[in-house]
Amino acid sequence: MSGPRYDRSKRQDQHLIGFECQACGWVSFPEEKRTCKRCGDAPAEMAEVQLAERGEIQTFVVQQYLPDDIETPQPVAIVDLPQEGEGEPARAYGLLTETDLEEIDVGTEVVARFRELFSDGERPINSFKFSVPREEKA
Amino acid sequence: MTDPHVVGAGMIDFGELYEQSFDDLLESAYLSLIENVDKGVDPSDIDAAWYGTIDIANEGSSGSAVAHATGLFETPITRVENACATGSDAFRNAAQAVKAGDAEVALVIGAEKMTDSTEGLIASAALERLWRGRGVTMPAYFGMRATRHLEEYETTREQIAEISVKNHENGTKYPHAHQQFECTVEDVKESPTVSYPLNLYDCCPVTDGACAVLVTSEERAREFTDDPIRVAGYGLASDTFQRGAPEALTNFPATRQASSQAYERAGLGPDDIDVAEVHDCFSITELITYEDLGFCEDGKGGQFVDEGRPHLDGDKPVNPSGGLLSKGHPIGATGVAQIAEIFEQLRGEAGDVQVDSPEVGLQHNIGIGRNATGAVSCVNILERP
Amino acid sequence: MVVIDGHGGYVPLYRVDRSEVAAQHGGRGRGESAVPARDENHVTMACEAADNALARAGVAGEDLGAVVTASVSDPFAEHGIAAHVASRFGATGDVRTTDLRGSRRAATDALAAAREFVAANDAPALVVGVDVLPADPDSDDVAEAGAGAGAIVLHRDADQPAAELVGVAQETTGFVEHHRRHGEAAETGDAKFEGRHGVGEAAPAATERALDGATPTKAVAAAPSDRLSGAALGGVDAEQVSTRDQVGDAGAAAALLDLAHLLETAVTGETALVVAYGAGGAGAVALETTDGVGTADAKSVATYLDASEETTYAKHLEYREPVDYEGVKTP
Ligand SMILES: [Zn+2]
């Protein structure tokens, strides 16, 4: 995966690195910020934090009408990605894969799945989607 | 410093206006304004103009499009784009300039040619950016708040649907509304799912439209009408759910901030509002907005509907014009048209949707931008002087 | 000494019933074939298996010294798999990456290459096999086209390895009967002829060299067909561990996926054999299982086999095609 736009944020996109404001604890993801979106600190002191490869659904919808690029029905959620250590989670959009409406609710724990999101020309752009744990499909 | 006043409004019938081009819409709204100013307006009186459009038809419609439509080539014209708050922000900019004394007679014109865009807004969901709004359409953005509101509060699906029922009923009484039909809660619940939990009848239609209003200083207002309406306050703010505030999952902090700015400027509060035109792009949006504007407590938007308070005959009528849900939502025109409707209401000229002698009216928009990660809200408050 | 420090597999969620596919062509079939989801590709599937193997090894991605991948279906001529898997796990910088392809023996070649790297450099190496076989509705093997991935972490030593690599060998013959161009159906040729002169002259020789007199209790064998993989184990009296009935033909991934399954189900102290036969010859690896066998610390192949969802013949074909994205890049 390359091309300037995608190469720029590869660490966030493939390794879930976030940036925590040392003034207020807010976690910037996926942007690598020099200002804080919450407390407005500028320049903010940001510390790199590792986010876990799982999330908690804060809210969601299940899309029925989307461009052909995306298969429907497509659940889309706002997920909280917890830090590996102490501290606040990052909050971000998450596309769900291999997951149906019946399997999710507000508060459902989902795992991050490394998947193809789209392509840059012919090159697949891989990053994370989310799903219910595979073993629950048994 | 002077108080800006609205002295005239020119609305056109909203709808699928296939026979009118984008430029035709601008012309129609401008001519409608010229015809409807009580004492008339000479184009040479206009000393500045603000134009609201997101140019969804992709016609490169900058300020000069308004010069072409009006002939006001020697007049400063500024295009404003601020997502779904575009029209109301164009108005806010005009009001600010008049208040500052920099313009005495300002034209505000908003227009959007929605039906010429073959792909429509849905195409933006194919966004090729990670962690932004790929897969997020407008019904999804608002639907996510519905899911969380239903989960967190005692809000019911029926209460959300009732807003659509109310606004469609109002729309049948408002001559400029696009959709002229009534529906029931069952109709809403049984219409096709667009984005769970929202169905087709929870969504506003795709509508062309334009509207223009004239804003002047207090000193000059009576040159144009004996019944001007004062602009008492305005506010504008943004937010994003990414900041992590819990209320950003159920509500719109941007609306809370924009309305508190407007209330403060006006020296008024939510209890003082007699009529409101608010952003109901989806049924849930209006329910959330009752709470964000302070018309009721957090989580009580559903109960507010159940009690009939936002209905035409309620104590806090909301969207007597039928709202975006039935009137339509030509993005750049929407906010300007809401100003026109509040202007009519406060002058007692709203016909079949006239509410009982209102003194203060509020206009509100909430827009989504930056690949569906941010929201912007604009609130304007008008008052009988 | 080089040991297997971690093992892991991956099988996509979706399965197509082979009898349903065969029925459309007036034939018969049994078992199922794995179908990758629309948003899976070689790199993402390889990463799923590698994730499990690294978790079992307790090896951090950034500590890897080499990543070697094996695939007979990588759609790209230039792009590769190994470097992308490496980078996904943070193995960047002075990390050797190797993409092996062109024959199903790429699986055992990858183990051999990684073993040499580990022995020479004392840094762990990750081996991943990944394949999505093309499904051509006009070909006989459309129903069997499978998908999956298997991964092994090799280390010079470990606290609790799953196995010790005791023998690695190959037999190169230059014989080719079954062959295939990129994205096309295979030319399978005469299976009986291939069994006798292709498999028969390569697999036993490689096996004998790798085992060096030991007697395996369990074995995995990968070859272009069920029949040929049976032939590849000809004369070896061991329990064959295979996921082929549920996964279908997983190409060069099959040997490593089945090996992961073997190590998850074996007990300590077993002798196991891996044979991979493909164009040009065969490779064989002999190993002795140790305490680290089993399913601890990661999802098991058995879980992937059980946790499945039926899909249609149409999806079996469609999900193998690249998605035609017409997305909005600069809104
Ligand atoms: Zn901060």
From TrEMBL, chain A:
Segments forming domain ChsH2 C-terminal OB-fold: 48-115
Superkingdom of origin organism: Archaea
PANTHER family for this protein: BLR3430 PROTEIN
Protein name, per record: Uncharacterized OB-fold protein, contains Zn-ribbon domain
Organism in which the protein naturally occurs: Halorientalis regularis
From TrEMBL, chain B:
Superkingdom as given in the UniProt entry: Archaea
Matches recorded under PROSITE patterns: THIOLASE_2
Parts of the chain that traverse the membrane: none
Molecular function per GO: acyltransferase activity, transferring groups other than amino-acyl groups; lipid binding
GO biological process, one term: lipid transport
Pfam families for the chain: Thiolase_C_1, Thiolase_N
Thiolase C-terminal domain sequence ranges: 242-368
EC number(s) reported in the record: 2.3.1.176
Alphabetical keyword list: Isoprene biosynthesis, Lipid transport, Lipid-binding, Transferase, Transport
Domain annotation Thiolase N-terminal: ranges: 6-219
CDD domains (alphabetical): SCP-x_thiolase
Name under which the protein is recorded: propanoyl-CoA C-acyltransferase
Taxon lineage: Archaea, Methanobacteriati, Methanobacteriota, Stenosarchaea group, Halobacteria
TrEMBL record, chain C:
InterPro entries documented for this protein: Thiolase-like (IPR016039)
Spans annotated as Disordered: 178-216
Name recorded for this polypeptide: 3-hydroxy-3-methylglutaryl CoA synthase
Basic and acidic residues composition bias: residue spans: 183-199
Source species: Halorientalis regularis
Keyword entries, A-Z: Isoprene biosynthesis
Record-level GO BP terms: isoprenoid biosynthetic process; secondary metabolite biosynthetic process
Signal peptide per UniProt: none
GO molecular function, one term: acyltransferase activity
PANTHER family: 3-OXOACYL-[ACYL-CARRIER-PROTEIN] SYNTHASE 3 (PTHR34069), BETA-KETOACYL-[ACYL-CARRIER-PROTEIN] SYNTHASE III (PTHR34069:SF2)
